[in-house]
# Entry
Amino acid sequence: MKLMVPTEQALSMVLFAAEAMGAGDETLLRALTPLVKFRACRDNIAVATGAMEARGGNGYIEEWVTARLVRDAQVGLLWEGTSNIIALDLLQRAIGRVGAQRALAQRLGERLGTAALPAVYRERLGAALDRAVALAGDVARDPTGEPEARSVASALYHAASAVLLAWEGARSPGDARRALISRLVLEHRLAPRDPLRRERRSWEEPAIDRLLAGKPIALPDVASLLVA
Ligand SMILES: Cc1cc2nc3c(=O)[nH]c(=O)nc-3n(C[C@H](O)[C@H](O)[C@H](O)COP(=O)(O)OP(=O)(O)OC[C@H]3O[C@@H](n4cnc5c(N)ncnc54)[C@H](O)[C@@H]3O)c2cc1C
# Structure
């Protein structure tokens, strides 16, 4: 799941950015470009490293592609712009000057409003998105907010990708797996948790088993796991 969730988040965000580019939606694209560069480039390092680890020693030797993927993952942080600089570009220019977070909130809100998801789950996603957008605006207005730039970028990325994954899942009722991935983003990246408390969630094991089985899951089955 540590490989699958960030990979699918990046796919949803990149395709959303491509759609904004095709539609000439410049304000939305202004937010999405640094968001994707920041988070997807960082997550790529963990995902490529995890892929190498899954192969054990075989992942390290050059007979497999994973060694090159791990090496190449590092360069995204440089040639796409370093994380601090990209996060500052998002916070101070895209949000602070252009107000691009409002376009992001509007387009994602439209998608969420039309998604055939359980109302309780849709409301949870909407609340997470609203809070991430409000946080971004607050920090951008605060002249002392610079140290929070990276947290803001991560919060917006996770909230946006959770909404997109849920919307995509609801659009394909025969196979709504992406909506399940959205819940993993919501619970693990956007919800508070106590690292010192033991926590087993009744929905999570069946959800992960179904996702790892690699077979389609119909929307009603997914919906029951979204609210369990
Ligand atoms: C393989 C490769 C290909 C490249 N191709 C291109 C290309 O085609 N076109 C191009 O224009 N460039 C290219 N670059 C250059 C690349 O964009 C820069 O290396 C990159 O932006 C980092 O800048 P820098 O090396 O000057 O590091 P620096 O700016 O010195 O950054 C060093 C560290 O300090 C941090 N830092 C710097 N300023 C601040 C600040 N104000 N606040 C907080 N932290 C800060 C950075 O986040 C970074 O972690 C390429 C680089 C590589 C490695």
User: Anything to note?
Assistant: The pocket of flavin-adenine dinucleotide is lined by residues 75, 78-79, 81-82, 84-85 (CB under 6 Å). The chain has twelve helices and no strands.
